[in-house]
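Hi F.,

I've been meaning to write this up properly since the lab meeting, where we talked about keeping a consistent format for the predictions we share between groups. The idea is simple: the sequence comes first, exactly as it goes in, then the structure tokens exactly as they come out, then a line or two of notes. No screenshots and no reformatting. I'm using this chain as the first example so we have something concrete to point to.
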Amino acid sequence: LVQDQARTADTVALYDEFFQKYAESSNRAKAAVVALPALEKSKRLPDALKRLEIIIAGFGNNVEAVGLEDCIVSYTNNAEKAGMTLEQLRERMYSFPGLPPDAEIAKARLRMALIDVYEKKIKEEKNDEIRNSLKGQIEGLFSQLKKDFDPAKMPNYSLVRIGDHLMKSGNAVQAKDYFSQVLKNDDVAFRDKAQFNLAVILGESEAAADRDQSIALLDKLLADFASDRILSEKVVRQKAIIYELGGQWEKVSETCRT
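Output, unedited:
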């Protein structure tokens, strides 16, 4: 216990020294996140979140900034521990302090992080009435996110999550736009998931051209992720399903033999 307290005190001291001397360092995000457990033990979590706010706002629309994603996730995961209610977190995510007005990508990512918190709450909540209320609020959050942001200005994570939500809600046609945008973006994060889901949607079409495009997307996945056995098996199964839907029984047999 004494050693643990000493380590905590040392970590907090290093954290304070770092931000006194190197507040603009490229490692500031990592330093802020790593120190969170020690700062929580030292009852300084609210101050630590304010530091994260400054860092996130400072990154603005630089979504490739090292540590931005960790900062956002750490902020939302620790908000309740710091005394913030779900409603207060919602207000903060919608009007994030210091974030430039044109930082559309960062704003969309913050909103998606808020939805992640709501979904985590649903898993933890045992009261059906509260769970249903949370589910209704999530629907509203997704609707607002779609309304407020052009897919071309969203980060890949948000695009994939919205696309997934639309697919589960029976709106696969709308989901296509979000998955397609991921494939247009320079960022390669979540591209495999977007490509697979887009292939699933196209594969369910009655148009032969759409099904052919679906197969092409799946073949590209097989080529690009040949070493991923789980994904490869999933892709092969999906190809067989699409050939079956098109009545191409020889192709079904051929695919199942691969």
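Notes:
The chain has a mean pLDDT of 92.
The CA atoms of residues 159 and 178 lie 5 Å apart.

If this format works for you, I'll send the rest the same way.

G.
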